[in-house]
Write a structure and sequence with these properties.
The chain is built from nine helices and no strands. It has 193 residues and is mainly α. The chain has one domain. Bound molecules: zinc ion.
Length: 193
């Protein structure tokens, strides 16, 4: 598995490509900005490795503890954290639940919008923004998904490479032991004499 630093590098090097392709496809700087921002966020601190004590997890700073139940529930590199679509969707739902809880506790909503908190209002605002800005939300989700998949693909690629390397080493070792055996037998018989 590549280290956290390698994953960071992949994200940063991937950013110009993601932004370029996104702008080429949408011709919209607004959507490109959202998608690239989501890609960065996903690659650096909202990626699959939140299922373990990783750099991504540490980047949440004083809020990192919200990911502890996530880590305790999911096996590292399971399909629920590293799988396509499933990983990002589950993390979004998980974060939304925490945001809801934190929102109620701290009363952020009342301060920002100067209105009383209610779930009904919250869902109204959410559905309104989802229906009014569908392409922005799709760009945001796509950015998150591409960031997560750049991680998972490099994880799987790294493990496959290591497995091949290990197999190669085992084969080599077998070959050397086979060639060495007559030598050691000869030494043994010499010692007996
Ligand atoms: Zn990983």
């Amino acid at each position: 598995m590549p280290s956290g630093r390698t994953h960071d590098r992949i994200t940063l090097w991937g950013l110009p490509f993601v932004a370029g392709i996104s702008f080429g496809q949408t011709q919209s700087s607004n959507l490109t900005l959202i998608l690239s921002g989501a890609f960065l966020f996903s690659g650096l601190m909202f990626g699959p490795d939140l299922d373990l004590n990783s750099v991504q997890y540490k980047r949440w700073g004083c809020l990192r503890w919200i990911w502890i139940p996530y880590q305790k529930t999911l096996r590292h590199r399971s399909l629920l954290s590293h799988g396509p679509i499933l990983g990002t969707t589950l993390r979004l739902i998980y974060l939304a639940v925490w945001l809801g809880i934190l929102g109620i506790l701290v009363g952020i909503v009342q301060l920002v919008w100067n209105v009383g908190w209610s779930w009904q209002q919250f869902f109204e605002v959410l559905t309104r923004s989802l229906t009014q800005y569908p392409s922005q939300w799709i760009a945001f989700y796509l950015g998150l998904e591409i960031g997560a998949m750049s991680h998972s693909v490099s994880d799987w690629g790294g493990s496959t490479y290591k497995r091949f390397k290990k197999q190669g080493r085992i084969k080599k070792r077998k070959l050397t032991t086979v060639t060495r055996r007559p030598k050691s037998a000869a030494v043994k018989s010499r010692e007996k004499r």
